[in-house]
Specification:
seven-stranded mixed beta sheet, 14 helices, 13 strands, 19% strand
Length: 342
Amino acid sequence: MILKGFDELNTFLSKSRNIVIVGHRNPDGDAMGSTLGLKHYFSKKGHSTTVVVPNEYPDFLHWLPGSESTYRFDWQNTQSQKAIKNSDIIFLLDFNALHRVGHDMQKTLENYSNEFAMIDHHQQPDNVKYMYSDVEICSTCQMVYQFIEMNNDLDLIDEDIATCLYTGIMTDTGSFRFRSTTSKTHRIIADLIDRGAQNDKIHNNVYDANSYGRLLLLGQALSNLQIFPEYKTAFITLTEAEKKKFDFQKGDTEGVVNYALSLKEIVFAAIFIEDVEQNIIKISFRSKGKFSVNQFARNHFNGGGHDNAAGGRFEGSIEEIIETFKALLPKYKNELNSSYEA
């Protein structure tokens, strides 16, 4: 764990401040839950707080309390730039490096004249003045809870804060099934329920709000599944044409990679998604056991993340990334076969 400048940060926040809270590009449940949860907390502490995210986030997260007041940098650029310029400090949540917000917003943040505070659980964080970093914690939402706890402010957690934080912990742990889900995580979840988080409603809003097109897209993704038993590996592909065929919407591929990982004796899974807007192949990796997809993504696909969940990118076609990926597997055969005892 890295806890840097905590006392100085608390002194700085002892007066009312204009605070901007930023999440990463393509925000997921943990990014939105943590930014909005922290926003509600700081508002109760008397600060003026604005959440700015780089771009759109999935429709199944738009119900989160406070979502309606969030600025999108790509769409509400004037409002976002003004909020950033007028802020006294920017909190960076659920990402470890400024490039994770995308090129345009990165340039704005690099020109920012005040200080950054980071709360994040990804490896190898950028160096900022104020930092709470812990790669052992399952989600940034759990870190926000513990940040509030360190400030002796748990009594300030109301239904809105509890709902936001529960959502991020639930989504980033795969509904509490990943190895990073500890007994402490469950105790925090219990406390959030006691403070107003309605677990059944949250689960339904996130996981039971599928469109017909999304389910058809999932069917297409599963039909594209390829398995390599000798490497305990499986991967899924989705082309731009397939996405358009089933009316793809932001968030429709969330969690699809986990279907490949759910196969018996598979310890390494990937999904390769064509993105013509960015002219890249977007990649998500998942693993079981000791095989580090974070290191794999860093070594080969300009990415990173956690040991068992990471992302990356590839400049080329679907066919090219398949060949590149398949060519790498023999180099990792021993690691993959010793990663996990099924």
